[in-house]
Design goal:
rod-shaped
Amino acid sequence: MGHNGEAAPRICVPATEGSGLSVLLGVQLKVRSFAATTSQLASLFKLLK
């Protein structure tokens, strides 16, 4: 029984680390897409001028 109790926290740790990494990746993707749209808007404004 003791081994089962010790295994549960070890299984939980990688899961939380993985979710943290996925959140970081999601933020990076949003930042990159935002930067891409802003650069496109900047080029459009240059064309309009």
